[in-house]
Design brief:
single chain, about 240 residues, mainly beta, Immunoglobulin-like, 2 domains, 4-stranded antiparallel sheet, 1 helix, about 40% strand
């Protein structure tokens, strides 16, 4: 009986040693460590952008796959490094959560960051909803085209601007998102004129998301971008996602 109990204890001890050996092998390869994402703004204005970044320790030199996502806003990873991304807040104030998944060899590590979205004078909601604030300047999308893609499919987008005068000194610049954001309707014709009553409309190529910028007349929009442009000449922004 003693020999059986002794054998059992030796067996359990052997299992513990094997477990420790496996743990040491795993540690010798180097565990991946990911920091919580940091954001360059304490609060993000509705419809505006902010920069995100994380610190990643990968002592084992493993091949890593990154996947950024947000519960409400939009995230576009930087072309320079996947540890950096541009976040665009939705057009409603409140709270959002940014999530980063880092995967290697079938294993995934998660990290997240809360984002506070606030209203600042001049920012307007989209999708035909009334302005969040009445302060100038502002823009809204009142007609959202359907979801689509390709160089042939086109439909009308429409909206309104407020808080600027005279309208002749301002333009609307529209982007349709596919793999990138493409200026509409063409890079050779990137401006939409504002009517005397503050309304605007254009025939554009379909995409998965639409962005309308209220800009100064002299603004020169890029033809295509991975992250939405920013700058002093961009007075307001509206974003709409087709249902």
């Amino acid at each position: 009986m003693k020999s059986v109990r002794k054998l059992s204890m030796m067996s359990n001890f052997a299992i513990v040693l094997i477990g420790l050996a496996l743990l040491m092998v795993s540690c010798s390869k180097g565990a991946i460590e990911i920091s919580q994402p940091t954001i360059d703004k304490e609060k993000v204005e509705v419809g505006k952008s902010a920069s995100l970044s994380v610190d990643v320790k990968n002592p084992g030199g493993l091949k890593l796959e990154y996947k950024w996502k947000a519960e409400k806003g939009t995230i576009v990873p930087s072309q320079l490094s996947q540890t950096i991304a541009d976040y665009t807040a939705p057009n409603m104030p409140g709270d959002d959560t940014v999530i980063l998944e880092v995967s290697s060899n079938g294993r995934t590590v998660f990290t997240s960051q809360a984002v506070k979205i606030e209203v600042v004078s001049g920012v307007i909601s989209t999708g035909g909803q009334p302005p969040i604030t009445g302060g100038p300047p502002g823009i809204t999308i009142t007609k959202v085209p359907p979801r689509g893609g390709g160089p042939v499919e086109m439909d009308e987008i429409a909206g309104e601007v407020s808080g600027v005068n005279p309208f002749d000194n301002y333009r609307v610049v529209i982007y349709s998102q596919a793999d990138l954001f493409y200026v509409q309707p063409y890079d050779t014709d990137p401006y939409t004129l504002i009517n005397s009553d503050g309304t605007w409309s254009a025939l554009i190529h379909l995409g998965i998301k639409y962005v309308a910028l209220l800009v100064e007349e002299s603004y020169k929009p890029p033809a295509q971008v991975a992250a939405l442009p920013t700058g002093a000449q961009i007075l307001a922004r509206a974003i709409a996602t087709p249902k």
